[in-house]
Design brief:
Layout: E1 8-12, H1 17-28, E2 32-37, H2 42-50, E3 54-59, H3 65-79, E4 84-87, H4 102-130, E5 133-138, H5 142-145, H6 151-171, E6 176-183, H7 189-193, H8 200-206, H9 219-226, E7 237-240
Parallel strand pairs: 1-2, 1-4, 2-3, 4-5, 5-6, 6-7
The structure holds nicotinamide-adenine-dinucleotide (NAD).
Length: about 250
């Protein structure tokens, strides 16, 4: 029995990495998936199709209200409903605080926080009208660690937890749950090829579970939150980090 049959799920930032894994995982559970990114999502489309899934690919800039409203309109025209939004698009530039310029700060807050606001605003009226919605925001365990050289990033990911709690408190009235997943250091191409790749071995040693965290390791948490088993869970932040943090 496919747990997401007839559900329509939008994932932001899924040209590769964690978002791609989410698209494939939800498609395998029967969801109609909308893959969105600034970049080409061809690889994700290919993987979803070879898993037998139904997918619509849209180029979306999460920092643009025109773009996010257009996204919601296109999904409604194509699939007729929006059940799930996964706010996954994000950037994580690494830089000591003294080297961060105001424009760098604004870029990170624009993608990681404004993007979450704008995508959620765009789909929210449709979820309200259905009296059903599942919103999952991708935060980070760096919030609990207070990781160095990531101040704008950690600030936005902490903001996402606040956004999740606040919106959950009023969205429940419309049958909408809002939760967050806080991944640990996850082996995506962006992470491995950036400067965070250098701390992977040290991070694994600090985890309770001594292996690297793969994007597919986050799927169980996502599917729990967007399928029936998670129906009464809202306002929560679920860390998936191999026991890097315990709280
Ligand atoms: P990724 O770079 O593979 O994915 C992020 C995607 O967001 C990219 O495809 C990028 O093109 C897209 N994007 C950037 N700006 C955008 C915009 N304005 N509009 C639309 N799309 C945009 O990275 P990832 O490692 O898969 O990370 C995915 C999410 O998980 C991010 O929010 C990240 O902060 C979070 N996260 C990652 C890790 C990790 O270690 N990889 C850990 C914790 C949290």
């Amino acid at each position: 029995m496919k747990r997401l049959k007839n559900r329509v799920a939008i994932v932001t930032g899924c040209a590769g990495g964690i978002g791609q894994s989410f698209c494939v995982g939800m498609a395998k559970e029967g969801a109609k998936v909308v893959a969105t990114d600034l970049l080409s999502t061809d690889e994700t489309v290919e993987k979803v199709k070879s898993a037998g899934g139904d997918i619509l690919a849209l180029q979306v800039d999460v920092t643009s209200e025109d773009s996010t409203l257009k996204m919601a309109r296109q999904v409604m025209n194509h699939f007729g409903r929006i059940d799930i939004l996964v706010n996954n698009a994000g950037i994580y530039p690494v830089s000591p605080f003294q080297d961060i310029r105001f424009e760098n700060w604004k870029k990170v807050t624009s993608v990681n926080l404004d993007g979450v606001f704008l995508c959620t605003k765009a789909v929210y009226p449709h979820m309200m009208a259905q009296n059903y919605g599942r919103i999952v925001n991708i935060s980070s365990v760096s919030v609990f660690l207070g990781s160095p050289s990531l101040t704008p990033y950690v600030t936005t990911k902490a903001g996402i937890i606040g956004f999740t709690r606040a919106l959950a408190s009023e969205a429940g009235e419309y049958g909408i749950t809002v939760n967050a997943i806080a991944p640990g250091l996850t082996a995506t191409k962006t992470m491995l090829e950036g400067s965070l790749g250098a701390i992977l071995d040290k991070t694994i040693k600090m985890q309770a579970l001594k292996r690297r965290l793969e994007p597919d390791d986050l799927l169980g948490a996502l599917l729990f939150l967007v399928t029936d088993g998670g129906d009464f869970v809202t306002g929560q932040t679920l860390a998936v980090d191999g026991g890097l943090t315990r709280h």
